Amino acid sequence: MNKYIPRDCSLKGRPFHLFRLLIQYHEPELCSLLDTKKITPDSYALNWLGSLFAYYCSIEVTQAIWDGYLQQADPFFIYFLMLIILVNTKEFILAQESDSKEEVIRFLENTPSSLNIEDIEDLFSLAQYYCSKTPASFRKDNHHLFGSTLLGIKDDDADLSQALCLAVSVSEILQANQLQGEGVRFFVVDCRPAEQYNAGHLSTAFHLDSDLMLQNPSEFAQSVKSLLEAQKQSIESGSIAGGEHLCFMGSGREEEDMYMNMVLAHFLQKNKEYVSIASGGFMALQQHLADINVDGPENGYGHWIASTSGSRSSINSSVDGESSNGSNDRGMKSLVNKMTVALKTKSVNVREKVISFIENTSTPVDRHLLVTATHMYCLREILSRKGLAYIQSRQALNSVVKITSKKKHPELITFKYGNSSASGIEILAIERYLIPNAGDATRAIKQQIMKVLDALES
């Protein structure tokens, strides 16, 4: 029985703390309501799990559930069956908010008894859907709950009652965003201070300085809006940084991640679904990449880790698809296919002040500007892979509404992107570059912009 009924299936047992985290991940509003009433999963689901619903269901329904459950050959599937049964009570519970704790528990406890044989197909179908929307770490990190052999479990690992939310392994984060099509994909939010983020970060991570939550609440609120907009844009654009599942990453040091936990709590209080935390934080990410020996022993973290340190930007201009080194559009496409996309410039509809905060552009960084027939790219060379680069930014030339420079610093060029209309110009994004021979570079870019605009008008 230990293969399909988790051990410690008792009041305040680990299986029920895990179930609460699963409810919170998919149905935060329902979870919050039950928490408010101090209704824990073990108070209503003890016999759901302990008897695999046989305590409440008819023999016919029980056999159908057991047949389907055993065919899944996945002991964790029972959690998703329980989740669907609970979710089906959501509207009733929300409507009966004035009911006492005991009344709600009694209602929930007996919910499986209303299942008919005709409901089983839909029950399993919905459970499979929720299962597909759950990180694999849910199973991998809790496999010790099932099986006949008692494994040594550290107290801190086992105390799921203290977990803020579901934890996701860094290996799953890296693997998930390389997948195409369906599946769990993560939008990683790095909550470390700016200086730590600048020293090194996951190349697809979005920076949200958790210190701002207390130091500057209004700017923090604006940054959260920018984060959600950037998440939306990255999903729509098909960026490898995109994902509907928010995963927060700290340093991995408990004393430093205090503010990140406050940020997590903020999103959970807003009933944001699909919220998780990266197990072990950035330290675990570094260790994992070192363990798997990314790009060979000499090359360290390879293309996964980016840093923002350096001196100046340089430019390679390209007109009508031809770059300065003679490569054509085909070569460019080949190059682009091998690049990873940094998310920082995906943010739209944000103020210049917030953009400067998010991008942490206080330290100039070596980059290349590449101008094709229709777009301008900001590229960062991959030192360990000659001839390849990361895309830091990709902007359509016809979206450039203004190019300016400072009189005192003529090499500091500002590009503003947006939409022009009769009511005025709407700025959607701003980028600044320190460009040697800026006059020649901006002239080449402006000429190409005019070609694009002429082509559109004709």
Automatic annotation (TrEMBL):
UniProt keywords (A-Z) are:
Developmental protein, Golgi apparatus
The Polar residues compositionally biased stretches are 319-328
Keyword Zinc among UniProt keywords = no
Q: Which CDD domains match?
A: TBC1D23_C-like (cd20788)
Q: What is its main location?
A: Golgi
Give the Pfam families listed for this entry: RabGAP-TBC (PF00566), Rhodanese (PF00581), TBC1D23_C (PF19430)
InterPro entries documented for this protein: Rab-GAP-TBC_dom, Rab-GAP_TBC_sf, Rhodanese-like_dom, Rhodanese-like_dom_sf, TBC1D23, TBC1D23_C
> Where does the record place Low complexity bias?
309-318
Domain named Rab-GAP TBC: residues: 1-73
Record-annotated Rhodanese domain positions: 182-294
**Gene Ontology annotations of biological process type:** embryonic brain development; nervous system development; retrograde transport, endosome to Golgi; vesicle tethering to Golgi
Q: Which residues form a coiled coil?
A: none
Question: PROSITE patterns in the record, alphabetically?
Answer: RHODANESE_3, TBC_RABGAP
GO CC: one term?
Answer: trans-Golgi network
Q: Where in the cell is it found?
A: Golgi apparatus, trans-Golgi network
Disordered, as annotated region: 309-331
Give yes or no: UniProt keyword Repressor: no
User: Know the name of this protein?
Assistant: TBC1 domain family member 23
Upper classification of the source organism reads: Eukaryota, Metazoa, Chordata, Craniata, Vertebrata
